[in-house]
Each structure stands twice: as C-alpha cells, then as structure tokens.
Amino acid sequence: ILHCVLAGLALMLFSGCAYSQKEVFPADVSTVALPIFENKSFYRHLDLDVSEALAKEVETRTPYKVVWRNSADTILEGTIVSVRQIQTSRQRQTGLPNEVDLQVVVDIVWKDMRSGEVLRERRGMTTVGRYIPARLVGDTLKTAEFEVAQNLAQDVVSVMRVGM
Fold first, then answer.
1. pTM for this one?
2. Spatial separation of the C-alpha atoms in residues 65 and 59, rounded to whole Å
3. Cβ distance 65 to 162 under 8 Å?
C-alpha cells in the first residue's frame, strides 16, 4: 500500500497537480512606496516597528521593490487606529497580570499611483501579540510590539495578493 501512495504522490508532482505555495500578486506592479504608518495611539515607535517589518516582508514575499514615493507605481498607506492591552490571565496569589495581549487595530489602503485606483483597502485589521509581565527576564511589552509588527506585516502582504 505504501508503494501505491508514494507512486500516486510522485504522479501528482510530475503532472503539475501538486499544491503550490507560490503567492500571486498583481503583475502590472513593480514598485511600492511604504510611508511610515500614521499612529493614532499613545504607543510611540510602534509605527516605526510596523513600517520596518512591512518593508522587509514586502521585499521578501512579493515581487515588488520598495522605493520612494515619487518613483513608485503604488503606495501602501496605513494607520494604527488603536492599541489595547488586554489581561488574559492573572496570578492567583497577587492578582497581578500573568499574560497580557497587545491588540493593535490598523486600516490600510493600497493605491495605484498612476491611475489613483484603490487596489486593496482593509479597515479594522486586528493583530495580537502576547507578553508575560511577571517574568523577570525576557517577555516585555517590547516583545509583544515586535510580535505584532511581524504578524501585521504578514497579514498586510497577504492582503496584497490577487483574489484577496
């Protein structure tokens, strides 16, 4: 039976029916400008972290080159709408927070600079990072901010795909 399964998998691979992880992005775009996200929260520097993570993610996962606004085909603008810390558990003895989620809500708009057409728009995209404030070493609010920036960058690039 194992031989039959292996033969079937080999047939699928060689016949082109195998699952592909290749992502599909609009082909008429080659560059994107990524201005620093507007930040309506009181969490300073989160906008810089998100913008840096997004630039790296775009360069890594898409066929696009990140360039200055005046030479870009498209522009992807974002706004950090809100940031909340949500206590998800607490220590029994002290009642102090044990785990805290950092919930960040953003709006994004990806526009074609040549035509003015909105390619993608998402309002209220929510991403969460977690940290454990009770740990003496390691998890801090900065840990959660880093996680949020990475997750958000992945989510935004996924929105840029065709069919999303």
1. 0.77
2. 6
3. no
